[in-house]
TrEMBL record:
GO terms for cellular component: membrane. It is found in: Membrane. This is Uncharacterized protein LOC110041243. It is a multi-pass membrane protein. GO terms for molecular function: transmembrane transporter activity. PANTHER family: MAJOR FACILITATOR SUPERFAMILY (MFS) PROFILE DOMAIN-CONTAINING PROTEIN (PTHR23528:SF1), PTHR23528. Its main location: membrane. InterPro entries: MFS, MFS_dom, MFS_trans_sf. It holds the Pfam family MFS_1. SUPFAM superfamilies: MFS general substrate transporter (SSF103473).
Length: 501
C-alpha cells in the first residue's frame, strides 16, 4: 500500500471514529446529578396540571354539560366530547414532540413550548368557563330512599309500565320519572366543545415538551427518584383538585376556573424558571410528510417500547374504567350512608385512595433506584389493583360502602407504586436519546387512547349485561371483572421487557 493510500485510510478511520464518538456523546453523555430540591422543582408542574385536570374533569365538566344539554343527553355529549379531545391529542402530541426535539432557540427546545401552551391553555379554559357559566346548585340526594334494584332497572323497563305504576301511587317510580324529565340548559354547547378540543391540544403543548424536559435533565441513576416525585406530585395534585371541588358551588364556574388556572400557571413558571436547558446549535434534519407519518410508528418497532406501551395502555384502560364508572356503581349498587349523594361518596372514597397512593409513590421510587429493579414492583402493583377490582365486582348492598374504603386504600397503594415507577421504566427503554420528546409523545398515547376507548367499551358492557339481568347488577359484575383482567395483563406483560430489570 502506498503512503497516499495509507494516509487516506487513516483519515477515513479517524472520520469514522469521530462520528462514532459524536454519536456516543449525543446519546450517552453523563448528566450531572440533581439535588432533591431541583428534582422537586422540575416535577412541580405535574402538581398544577393534575390539580387542574382532576377537578375540571371529575366535577366541573360533567356539571357544565348537564347545564348545557340536560339529563337526557348529558352522558352521550360528555362521552363524545371526551372522545373528540382524545382524538385531537392523539394526532397533535407526536407532532409537538417532533418539533420540540428539533427546535433551535436560545432558551432551549422544551420551555418555549411550555410557555406558549400555558398561555393558550388559560385562554381556552376561560372560553369553556364563559361558554357554560351557570350550573345547578348542589341538591340533596332525592333517590337515596329508593330501592337499589328499582334504580338499576329503570332504564331497561318499559316506560308505559312505569307510568302505569305511577298512576298506582308508586312513590319510587314517581320520583325517578321526575328526575329523568329534568332539563336545564344554559350557554352554548358548540362553543363549549370547540374550546374543550382547544384545551386538549394546548394541554399536549405543555405536557409533551415537559416530559422531554424531565427526560433531558434527569440522569439515569435518578430516574426512579424523579419518577417517584412525579408520581407524588401527580397524586398530590389530584388530592388538591378533589379538595378544591368541595368549594365548587361556593366559588361558581368562573371562580373555580380562575383558581385552577392560577395554580397551574404558578407551577409551570416555577419549573420553567428553575430549569436550565442546553439549546441545540444546529437544526436537525427536517421531516417531510412521509417522515412525519413514519415517525409515529418508528418507536413501536422496538420490542421493549411496544411492551411498555401495551402495559401502560392496559393499566390506563383499567384506571379509566374504574374512575369513569365508580360514581354510577355507588349510585346503583351501594346503599350510601346518611343519604349521601354519589358525588360526595366518590370524593370520600377517592381521598384515602389518593393519600395512600401519594405516600407509596415516593417510597417506591427510592426503592426502585436502590434495588435497580423495576419490573417486580410494577407487576406486584398491577396484580394488587387487579384483586381490588375483583372485590369491587363482588360488593353491593348495605355495607358495601364501608367495605369499599379499605379496598380503595389497597388500590391506592398499587396505583401509587405503579405511578412512581412507570415513567422510569419508559425512560429505561427509549429507543433514541435524540428523539426523547417525540417517543414520549407516542408513549403518551397509551394514556390518551383509553379516554376514548375505555368509557364506550365499559358503557356497552354495562348496558348489555344490565339489560340481561339488572336485578343482580350483572353489568357491574362483568365490568369490574374485565377491569381486573386489564390490570392483571398489564402486570404480566411487564415481564416481557428485556432492557429493564
Amino acid at each position: 500500500m502506498s503512503n497516499g493510500e495509507l494516509s487516506d485510510a487513516n483519515l477515513d478511520f479517524e472520520k469514522q471514529d469521530s462520528e462514532v464518538h459524536e454519536e456516543k456523546t449525543d446519546c450517552e453523555i453523563e448528566k450531572p446529578s440533581l439535588s432533591k430540591s431541583r428534582v422537586l422543582l422540575l416535577n412541580v408542574s405535574w402538581f398544577g396540571l393534575n390539580a387542574m385536570y382532576l377537578v375540571l374533569s371529575i366535577e366541573v365538566f360533567p356539571s357544565q354539560v348537564h347545564a348545557l344539554v340536560g339529563s337526557e343527553d348529558k352522558g352521550q355529549v360528555l362521552g363524545a366530547m371526551i372522545a373528540l379531545g382524545a382524538v385531537v391529542t392523539f394526532f397533535v402530541s407526536p407532532l409537538i414532540g417532533m418539533k420540540s426535539d428539533r427546535l433551535v432557540f436560545k432558551y432551549g427546545r422544551r420551555r418555549p413550548f411550555m410557555i406558549a401552551g400555558m398561555g393558550l391553555l388559560v385562554i381556552a379554559l376561560f372560553g369553556m368557563a364563559f361558554s357554560a357559566p351557570y350550573v345547578e346548585n348542589e341538591k340533596d340526594n332525592s333517590t337515596c330512599s329508593i330501592g337499589l334494584e328499582i334504580k338499576r332497572c329503570l332504564p331497561y323497563l318499559n316506560l308505559t309500565v312505569l307510568e302505569e305504576e305511577e298512576r298506582n301511587n308508586s312513590a319510587d317510580v314517581d320520583v325517578l320519572l321526575n328526575i329523568l324529565s329534568q332539563k336545564d340548559t344554559e350557554g352554548n354547547v358548540v362553543m363549549y366543545v370547540i374550546f374543550y378540543t382547544m384545551v386538549m391540544a394546548c394541554y399536549a403543548l405543555v405536557s409533551v415538551p415537559y416530559n422531554g424536559l424531565i427526560a433531558d435533565l434527569t440522569p439515569p441513576l435518578q430516574r426512579g427518584l424523579s419518577s417517584g416525585v412525579m408520581g407524588a406530585m401527580t397524586l398530590a395534585g389530584n388530592i388538591t383538585g378533589a379538595a378544591i371541588g368541595l368549594f365548587f358551588f361556593r366559588l361558581g364556574v368562573v371562580g373555580i376556573y380562575s383558581l385552577v388556572c392560577l395554580i397551574f400557571v404558578v407551577c409551570v413558571l416555577i419549573t420553567v424558571l428553575c430549569s436550565h436547558e442546553t439549546p441545540l446549535t444546529e437544526e436537525p434534519e427536517s421531516l417531510g410528510f412521509k417522515g412525519i407519518f413514519l415517525a409515529y410508528w418508528e418507536p413501536l418497532k422496538d420490542a421493549d417500547f411496544r411492551w411498555v406501551f401495551l402495559t401502560r395502555f392496559l393499566m390506563q384502560q383499567g384506571v379509566a374504567t374504574v374512575t369513569g364508572f365508580l360514581e354510577f356503581w355507588l349510585n346503583d349498587m351501594v346503599s350510601l350512608p346518611h343519604c349521601w349523594s354519589p358525588e360526595r361518596s366518590v370524593a370520600i372514597i377517592l381521598l384515602p385512595l389518593l393519600l395512600a397512593a401519594a405516600g407509596v409513590s415516593i417510597i417506591a421510587g427510592f426503592l426502585s433506584d436502590a434495588l435497580q429493579r423495576r419490573k417486580p414492583l410494577v407487576t406486584g402493583s398491577a396484580i394488587l389493583m387487579s384483586i381490588c377490582a375483583l372485590i369491587f365486582a363482588c360488593l353491593k348492598g348495605k355495607y358495601a360502602f364501608y367495605a369499599s374504603i379499605p379496598v380503595a386504600v389497597a388500590f391506592g397503594v398499587g396505583f401509587g407504586a405503579y405511578c412512581a415507577i412507570d415513567f422510569a421504566l419508559v425512560m429505561d427503554v427509549l429507543p433514541k436519546d435524540k428523539d426523547k420528546a417525540k417517543d414520549l409523545a407516542v408513549w403518551h398515547q397509551a394514556l390518551v387512547l383509553p379516554q376514548a376507548i375505555a368509557t364506550p367499551i365499559g358503557g356497552i358492557i354495562l348496558d348489555v349485561f344490565e339489560r340481561y339481568d339488572c336485578h343482580m347488577g350483572l353489568g357491574y359484575i362483568i365490568l369490574f371483572t374485565v377491569t381486573s383482567f386489564y390490570f392483571a395483563l398489564s402486570g404480566i406483560f411487564v415481564i416481557k421487557i428485556k432492557k429493564a430489570k
